């Protein structure tokens, strides 16, 4: 029985409890438990170097703040091109970061142009803060070895994107 309102992590704990305390339910629930464990194991990266490079892919986008024009795109692109063949996690996160950075650079440029109308300054501040928060969340999530998907992102690079 699947409980859609319960996140999968709690669903696994629930099934673990059932399997431990009700021996007759063991045969019915073990298949569901195995499927959920496999899904979680695919998403968590164990190799420390791979996690570190995945995290740096997100973190290097902050080079924009040290004055490098388009450093938020160039930095992740360099790491992506160097390490994509070595680490699958860096390849996935590199695509995600590049798509996010290109999309949000376009949004921030449009906000800059709209300053002349008067609404651009508010948009620039709001999108700038959102960008910074999302980059930090992506960095922290990738540092724990979990794939992070940015919201509001156009897919330029990837399996369904324009490139690759």
Give the topology:
Blueprint: H1 8-21, H2 26-43, H3 48-59, H4 71-83, H5 88-113, H6 120-143
Helix pairs in contact: 1-2, 3-4, 3-5, 3-6, 4-5, 5-6
Q: What's this, in brief?
A:
With 164 residues, the protein is mostly helical. Helices cover 65% and strands 0% of the residues.
Structure description:
By secondary structure, the chain is mainly α. The protein has two domains: 8-43, no CATH class; 48-143, no CATH class. It is built from six helices and no strands. It is elongated, with a radius of gyration of 20 Å. Mean pLDDT is 78; it is low at 1-35 and 37-42.
Average pLDDT for all residues: 78
Q: How many E-type strands?
A: 0
By secondary-structure content and strand pairing, the structural class works out as mainly alpha
Q: Which regions are unreliable across 5 or more consecutive residues at pLDDT < 50?
A: 1-35, 37-42
Topology as H/E string? Answer: HHHHHH
Number of helices: 6
Shape: elongated
Query: Termini separation (Å)?
Result: 41 Å
Which radius of gyration do the C-alpha atoms yield?
A: 20 Å
Helix content: 55-70%
How many distinct folded domains?
Answer: 2
Major sheet size, sense and barrel closure? none
- Percentage of β-strand residues: under 5%
